[in-house]
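Re: [ENG-882] Designed sequences occasionally contain unexpected residues at chain ends

Forwarding the minimal case from QA. Structure tokens:
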């Protein structure tokens, strides 16, 4: 199995979220699981599968579930009363030898293709290179340890550079026997059309509040308001886990409460938000505040076109958005301001501008926009 030393960062691990290989179940994706099970039961399993959908909805977790299922499954043989019924789920006993080896990254019939560690620069590479795909080709050319099926997980396929993508295409065009490639893609449009055309697609949908609450519980994350997190995270369990662990929902509530005072800005609330962004001992606090400000402005812009969100992320949000952005003309103005402030925030954060000063500047500009729209009315 392809891997790097255990002490190195993993390109397919999101910060603060359990790795997909350590996640037992996928919630909210019953249709995708059923589609794969039906294909497996048909006896004509396709060699290439493309798992698509927003980040954090379970694509990689499903890929690992499928891989465990394929490598642990034994072909059913007809007995005296015919063949047994096909498996009803992708579940694999966690004590199964294949499951234990996969958890330890020691399964010889599984290849994990992901961005590799750059030993010269002491960081993960920014793309999957052709050298990694060549290793995958070598893996497929070797005989499996017990003559069984071999599986490769590509996470994420849209991180391949052009040379790597072309090399993978050749494998999809002439797949070795008894092999399955599982391609995880957050942005499938970035893949070669010929790669997409040679794969069967499993589309994963955003999670609703109940499924998201179950995913959070599986990850060991407590959430008092799963509905609010689902709205704020766009149905992404990964995003919801990070928000819950970092107090994101409470912080977003503070942003909404501050926006409720516009255009008569409550400066005490503004300074409190700025101090939260500059909190000592939390290097990612500014990033969280900036991302939540971006999200608020995006939801604000959409409210002028599609109406206030339902459900709302925090109590009172719908009223604030409806007042500040009542029509499409206001939505265009807020969208322009959101684009400007997003670029400004990223540039300022990159040069280590004082976090508190940056947040205050952004809030003042938001207040200016609210005042401008009030005068328009």
């Amino acid at each position: 199995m392809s891997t790097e030393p255990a002490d190195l960062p993993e390109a397919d691990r999101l910060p603060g979220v359990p790795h997909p290989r350590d996640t037992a179940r996928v919630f909210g994706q019953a249709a995708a699981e059923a589609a794969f099970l039906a294909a497996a039961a048909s006896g004509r399993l396709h060699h290439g599968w493309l798992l698509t959908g927003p980040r954090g909805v379970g694509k990689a977790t499903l890929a690992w579930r499928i891989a465990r299922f394929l490598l642990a499954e034994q072909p059913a043989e007809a007995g005296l009363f015919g063949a047994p019924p096909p498996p009803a789920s992708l579940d694999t006993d966690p004590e199964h030898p294949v499951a234990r080896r996969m958890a330890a990254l020691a399964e010889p019939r599984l290849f994990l293709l992901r961005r590799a560690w750059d030993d010269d620069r002491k960081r993960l590479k920014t793309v999957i290179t052709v050298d990694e795909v060549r290793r995958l080709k070598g893996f497929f050319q070797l005989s499996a340890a017990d003559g069984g099926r071999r599986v490769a997980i590509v996470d994420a396929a849209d991180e391949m550079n052009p040379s790597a993508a072309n090399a993978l295409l050749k494998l999809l065009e002439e797949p070795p026997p008894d092999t399955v490639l599982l391609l995880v893609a957050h942005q499938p449009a970035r893949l070669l059309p010929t790669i997409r055309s040679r794969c069967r697609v499993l589309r994963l949908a955003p999670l609703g509040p109940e499924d998201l609450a179950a995913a959070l519980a599986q990850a060991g994350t407590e959430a008092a308001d799963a509905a609010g997190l689902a709205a704020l995270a766009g149905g992404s369990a990964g995003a919801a886990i990070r928000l819950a662990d970092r107090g994101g929902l409470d912080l977003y509530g503070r942003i909404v409460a501050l926006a409720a005072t516009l255009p008569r800005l409550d400066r005490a609330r503004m300074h409190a938000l700025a101090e939260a962004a500059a909190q000592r001992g939390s290097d990612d606090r500014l990033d969280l505040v900036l991302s939540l400000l971006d999200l608020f402005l995006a939801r604000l812009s959409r409210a002028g076109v599609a109406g206030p969100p339902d459900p709302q992320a925090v109590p009172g949000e719908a009223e604030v958005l409806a007042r500040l952005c009542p029509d499409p003309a206001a939505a265009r103005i807020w969208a322009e301001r959101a684009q400007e402030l997003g670029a400004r925030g990223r540039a300022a954060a990159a040069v280590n501008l004082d976090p508190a000063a940056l947040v205050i500047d952004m809030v003042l500009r938001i207040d200016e926009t609210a005042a401008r729209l009030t005068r328009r009315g």
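QA comment: On inspection the terminal residues look reasonable. The mean pLDDT is 89. Proposing we downgrade this to a documentation issue.
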